[in-house]
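Hi R.,

Here's the chain you asked about this morning:
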Amino acid sequence: MIAVERDGGVATVTIDRQEVLNALDPPTLTELRDRLAELAADGGTRAVVLTGAGDRAFVAGADIKAMSAMDIGQAQAWGALGHETASLLETMPKPTIAAVNGFALGGGCELALACDVRYASSAAKLGQPEVSIGIIPGWGGTQRLPRVVGIGRAKELIMTGRLVDAEEALRIGLVNAVFAPQELLQKTLELAADLAAKSPLVLAAAKQAMNRTLYGDLSAEAEAFAGLFGSDDQREGMAAFTEKRVPRFTGS
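And here is the predicted structure, written out as tokens:
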């Protein structure tokens, strides 16, 4: 379920699947994309805040049970949907702010990376752990994470799957600021209201100008992500995750 609340020019988009730590399955991600597309085209919306329901997770990633059943073609469509959603956050002509209130893993971290600004709870944990289930980031993480934290740190985080806490995320530039959990949304909304009061023409121009220097080859990532869905290691990695055991990768 995706909830959209408006307060003046600020729209707050909340992903609510708390029973699975707000993990994204195809219907939820489709609804998120559609709501973001509406906000992108809405002249009355001046700033967009993205967050997760509850205090445990922003988005704990894509729903691995749903991904486990995908073949290569379905994975290509899934990756394309994730790219489309992230691209809306990155390119819509208004500021987007992630309020990272807990786990932001895999696709959740990628959606946060696509936002213009990331504020985090002191209890947040972020990362790209896809390697542990036999795939790579598929929604832009291989391109956006290096831009934000540098190529060396990005390679380490993606290739190990290691998670970072809020303090480390702030130190390496993965988030812009860290607040106590009870203050996070208030601080994020204060920033959003400040941005909403500025000229939308100026902010759109500034965002577009900065984005021109950032675009990488997302198509190569999408192809590699989907191609891994034909591997034994992908099947083993996702099976091990759902069965709560250590995967046994063979390189095939």
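One quick note: The longest helix spans residues 72-91.

Cheers,
M.
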